[in-house]
Specification:
The structure is a homodimer. By secondary structure, chain A is an alpha+beta fold. Chain A has twelve helices and 15 strands. The first copy, chain A, has two domains: 268 residues, L-amino peptidase D-ALA esterase/amidase; 150 residues, Roll (Ubiquitin-like (UB roll)), CATH 3.10.20. Helix content of chain A is 33%, strand content 25%. In chain A, the strands form three sheets. Chain A has a six-stranded mixed sheet. At the A-B interface, α9, α10, β13 and α12 of A face α9, α10, β13 and α12 of B.
Chain lengths: 438, 438
């Protein structure tokens, strides 16, 4: 899925590579700040990052897709309205509270847009808000408005790396991907590590390009790029109320080749989607499932998702345990419920290139077992160490490699297919989400 | 959901209560044995329990429902055939290997039935096999046949408790429930602690009754009792390949009152279903979700399942963390995907009787937070202790109480409803399924 096959021997090597990706396209600025505040909902202080992405001149050429969760956050409600505006000039992103169904949430977010617009010389409707954090908490609007000038004065035209860092919450490292087309580029940043099974979009993704491309084209190309990338990943099956992907073009560089642009956009989306999974909460293994010769793409994708979302498949992967019966269980669970007419007679399943199931039966023995264990161990990002206090924390904050556990499911009944990306389920995920308040 | 509200101050108190439930109905015998064998698939020995349940005389009056997983185990394939037999006389249950899609699985299971039939003086087709354990592993048929005489000679007419213990795998304690009707009774035992989101049936459940009830009635009443009980629970969303519920009547006690029988059957099924969840792998909290005023029962059940199956809701429960925004996320995830036309304007959500969301907004403050924490702590079965080696093991092997986390979702749009039972997601679940080979 990823366009690259990188390895990073150290945190420093990864950061250097990120810096090389994070070159801001022409016509953009980025900045950020952070501060403490007291939430209205609990009785202890919290910290918030505020990030600004701005165009030198508001642009008519932008596109966005949002979550399909039926309780969207206030920023998503406003973001959908912004799609009808003639131009967009800036994005403001905050962490810690997602402003979902908090009292007066939409009004508070509009006040923030007005404050940002005033600082940047833009109308409130030229500012798109994004929020991520605790669902149900209010925006600390006065503290945020007070922090806007600091964020605005920090803005620079060189790098997106600070912004990519500033939008992070439980992410372990920034996610930045770049693709060049002629003299221009598309550079994207993503935030997202939990509550990730996007539908029409994922957590927070900002794609900036200086390549000139009209609004109508952007709005056609963005969903096409998002569908096989962000919509084909799942970390924990949970679809956020805040999922947002925004694409902004400054138009500073002419781009006559729409096909090359679409290809670059697709590459950045696929790479960022894989980054989001690889950096998912507690992830030790990225699991890629390729479903082939299916009767329909939709079924192939759903069946692949059923496999990567099975807690028992996920925990087996975590343990480097080729308990491959659980994979068949997950296929059968999906097919039994949702595709009872599907003929599974000729289904063939392989793990790490080794056939484990064909002609209706498993093919297992101690030699195969050893080979499968080796494949799982090779794909591991790191191993847990038992912590003295029982709270598991990730042992790395960079991706040492881009290898995946490779599962292939050949249904042998059609010509459609899909590839989905998931992850294992680990003690670090439990610690992240149960052992202390997010 | 459970018909009782029991508390058990100690393991001994729980075992004494189990013994009081496990009185065998008239006309039945039960026995078991265990032994070691060498699996063909891995290179270390394993242990197996073999359990026999038998009628004094084969009966025409029996019913069974099985998994809807599209890769059913060989015993399920055979069990479906047995439904057409004139009589059934015995059930043989083994642990450790589930005999799912292993080479020659059906033939091996039939050989086992023949061995059991020979020992009990019955035809092979009068024996129903059940298997639970690793998917893909073969039955160690020679070792099993050698063990049948020991199991047969251990059979007694007094108690089902040894059998309830013998069918356990990762279960922490036996599950036995009894309901009396006049001079007769229905006594059920269940095994199941993981891979539990049954569909049409759950893991392994055996319901024995001496109450006379014709086959046709049993086959009508069993699915009706299973649907709102076993089909409304989920521990980990995974539907086993072996789910089986069998109901056998010896007919020793006349039962003119079908209504009372149906009620008793429903009670035993509901109580066992709750037992299965309470004893689920790593479960600290049982979570009950009551969805009311829904447009349809099917939607109510699916929406409730979406809430109890959300990993982020489950981990919040585990941590006694009233991160209630995740509950709204889960409702919105389901509605956005599967019921986009559902009007959520008047949805009201409460936790432990406290309203947390109504009129489109959350109702949260530090006092509410403290009340919700107290409710979650009151419903906890036990708390984790950090283990020195990083492998979390349950700290109890009995259920200290029958309290649940009580979630209510009032959709205010219709008259249908459903109640579902789920559980939290804990370090003990991860350790059970990742830290050592099951």
């Amino acid at each position: 899925m990823a366009s690259t096959d990188l390895t990073f021997p150290s945190r420093e090597a990864h950061r250097a590579w990120l810096a090389s990706q994070a070159v801001l396209p022409k016509g953009f600025r980025a900045g950020s700040t952070s501060f403490e505040f007291m939430p209205a909902e609990v009785s202890k202080p919290a910290a918030m990052n505020l990030t600004l992405l701005a165009l030198d001149r508001p642009t008519p050429d932008f596109a966005a897709v949002f979550t399909r969760n039926a309780f969207p956050g206030a920023p998503v409600v406003i973001g959908r309205r912004r799609l009808d505006e003639p131009t967009l000039g800036a994005v403001v992103v905050n962490t810690k509270t997602s402003n979902v169904r908090a009292p007066d949430g939409v009004a508070m977010a509009e006040r923030l847009c007005a404050g940002v617009g005033a600082a940047l010389g833009m109308a409130p409707t030229q500012v798109l808000p994004s929020s991520t954090g605790v669902i149900g908490w209010r925006l600390p609007i006065e503290a945020m408005l007070a922090a806007v000038p600091a964020a605005a004065s920090s803005m620079g035209k060189a790098s997106l790396l600070d912004a990519a860092q500033s939008i992070m919450t439980t992410d372990l490292y920034p996610k930045v991907r770049r693709a060049a087309v002629g003299q221009g580029s598309i550079v994207g940043i993503a935030k997202g590590a939990g509550m990730i099974e996007p539908n029409l979009a994922t957590m927070l993704v900002y794609l900036l390009t200086d390549l000139a491309m009209p609004r109508a084209t952007l709005r056609r190309l963005l969903p096409a790029a998002v569908d096989p990338s962000f919509n084909c990943i799942s970390i924990d099956t949970d679809t956020s109320t805040s999922d947002t992907v925004v694409l902004l073009s400054s138009g500073a560089v002419p781009c006559p080749d729409e096909e090359a642009f679409a290809q670059a956009l697709s590459t950045v989306c696929h790479d960022l989607a894989e980054d989001v999974v690889r950096n998912g909460e507690g992830v030790h293994h990225v699991v890629r499932v390729a479903v082939t010769r299916a009767p329909a793409e939709r079924l192939a994708r759903a069946l692949g998702k059923a496999v990567i979302n099975s807690p028992l498949v996920k925990t087996a992967m975590c343990g480097n345990d080729p308990n491959v019966g659980r994979i068949l269980m997950a296929i059968g669970k999906y097919a039994g419920m949702h595709a009872p007419q599907l003929n599974l007679q000729d289904t063939r399943v392989s793990l790490g290139g080794r056939t484990i199931f064909e002609n209706g039966s498993f093919r297992l023995d101690p030699a195969v077992e050893a080979e499968l264990v080796a494949h799982l161990e090779h794909a591991a990002l790191y191993a847990s160490a038992a912590p003295a206090n029982g709270v598991f924390r990730p042992r790395i904050d960079f991706p040492p490699h881009e290898r995946c556990v490779e599962l292939a499911i050949d249904l042998a009944v059609g010509t459609a297919g899909a590839t989905v990306l998931g992850a294992d389920l680990t003690h670090e995920y439990i610690s992240e989400n149960a052992d202390y308040r997010t």
